[in-house]
Amino acid sequence: MAKKFQNNDLIHNLVSSTPAPAQTQTTQVAATPSAAAADEKMRTSYIVSKQANFKMKYIALKQNKTISELVDEALNNLISEWEKKTGESTPSL
User: Which of 35, 43, 61, 86 could form a disulfide with 30 if both were Cys (CB 3.0 to 4.6 A apart)?
Assistant: First the structure.
């Protein structure tokens, strides 16, 4: 029942103009320094259209993912496709 209540809250936040409260996320420290740099998360901001933001929230809700997870997945796919298309490898930390 808690899951259904949470989904109803997410749907309400999705269609309302009031943003949902921010969620705090923690990251795990990796065993090696090079792996730690690759897995480390950072907070950043981007400006997106209202329509894209609305659709992204809907997709995240339907896939039971956070928006951060969805954006991270989309960015990794974009980078992978670009590397395949250009044959160029992007730099790493």
Answer: 35
Alpha helices by DSSP H, listed for the chain, are 2-15, 33-39, 50-62, 67-86
Comparison of pLDDT for 56 and 6, the residue scoring more: 56
DSSP letter at 28 equals: P
Take residue 20 and report the two structure tokens written for it.
């949902």
**If you ran DSSP here, which 8-state letter would residue 20 be given?**
P
Rounded CA separation 6/2 (Å)? 6
Coil/strand/helix, residue 91: coil
Residue type, 45: S
For the residues 56-72, what does the mean pLDDT come to? 95
Neighbours of 38 (CB within 10 A): 10
Q: How many residues appear in the chain?
A: 93
CB 8 within 8 A of CB 55: no
Question: HSE of 66 in the Cβ direction (CA atoms, 13 Å)?
Answer: 8
